[in-house]
Amino acid sequence: MPTSELGLDKPLAALGISEAAQVTARFAEIRALFDSQSATVHDDSQWKTFRDTWLGRKSGVLAQITDNWLKPATPGLKRAVGASLNELRAHVESQIEARRLAIESGAEESALARERVDLSLPGVTRPIGSHHLIRQVFQQIEDIFVSIGFSVVEGPEIETPYYNFEALNIPEFHPVRDDMDTFYIDLPKGAPTPLLLRTHTSPMQIRTMEKQKPPVRVIVPGKVYRRDNPDATHSFAFHQVEGLAVDTDITFCDFTGTIEYFVKQFFGPGVNTRFRPSYFPFTEPSVEFDVSCIFCGGSGTAASGVTCAKCKGAGWIELFGAGMVDPAVYGFVNYDAKKVNGFAFGMGMDRLAMLKYGIDDIQVFFQNDVRFLRQFP
Ligand code: DAH
């Protein structure tokens, strides 16, 4: 209650106060108001305002009580008002002096410090999840390729045999289908085409080139599926990143240079790369890229002196398949094989993540054990 609401500007009669008990009650309210204001006075300027409010010569609370309540009081009430006023004055004066001393001695400051809300105290923390390691590695790979002009595209996980095999130059009875044969979807009789879970991200090479004229520079991160039995390096679902660059002047040097750049960015500048001849129906020539063993530094010997278990002493670790796009593939997407050339690659993401982070069982990626996940915040 502000002092303006105490009715100090009117005589007691106008406030309906006619008995001693009412006077005492009213003074008790005033005293409570004074005490509550007193508790909020912590520095010099607050103290001055406080003092003037109560002790000001002309319009201080006590002066107003004297002028408006005591002086015009009826003889019957005068005594009661005088006694209460004296009591109040004694309390007000001693308290105001006590506040002054407290503020001067600095005691107030420490009281303030004691009462201050400590904003540095920890609040209620909500656990925030983190990206799965595979998602993090996808992100790293995307960042590297985006920085050299590739864009990221994604495609369907359910494919037709045409995109998954035929248009990639893998006809129906080609032996490599045996390695990749996969999960076919149970379709109603008379469905126009069989459907399967894609065995690799390579179908997106075809889908991208169908939609877009050269130059093409894309990477395709995504999930792929194979009828593999689970073990430390196999899972029925895993992850790949496909890459495709097609233009009119792409050479084998652009190809190896790009791959080497990626591998050094991903594993660190200290690693070396090499490639060996390989075979894929949709690339010609095809290669297999190796990286110098990141566990033994390429020496083939572990720090303990024994043969490196990771590369089995070879000093090299097989990374992924790649090659120059086979001209036959261009035929499926209406590109002129005489005018364009390019390269493609397909990396096993899980394998890259396992090598980079020293993980020796692919199954941990799919078990979602928080003790594993928490190690990669
Ligand atoms: N699709 C192949 C696989 O899953 C990997 C691959 C090899 C992709 C060579 C390519 C490539 O684009 O050029 O085994």
Give the total of beta strands: 9
The total of helices stands at 14
Terminal-residue CA separation: 55 Å
Main pleated sheet: 7 strands, mixed
- Which kinds of small molecule does this entry bind, naming each only once? 3,4-dihydroxyphenylalanine
Q: Which H/E pattern describes the elements? A: HHHHHHEEHHEHEEHEEEHEHHH
Structural class: alpha+beta
Average pLDDT level: 91
3D shape: elongated
C-alpha Rg (nearest Å): 43 Å
Low-pLDDT residue spans: none
Strands ordered across the widest β-sheet: 1-4-5-9-8-7-6
Secondary structure: helix percent? 40-55%
* Strand proportion: 15-25%
Question: How would you portray this structure in words?
Answer:
It is elongated and about 125 Å long. The chain has a seven-stranded mixed β-sheet, sandwiched between helices. Strands 2-3 form a two-stranded antiparallel sheet. The longest helix is centred in the N-terminal third of the chain and has 30 residues, at 75-104. The chain has 14 helices and nine strands. It has 377 residues and is α+β, with helices and mostly antiparallel strands. Helix 2 packs antiparallel against helix 4. Strand 6 and strand 7 (283-292) form a beta hairpin. 40% of the residues lie in helices and 17% in strands. 3,4-dihydroxyphenylalanine binds at residues 200, 202, 242, 280, 283, 321-323, 344-346.
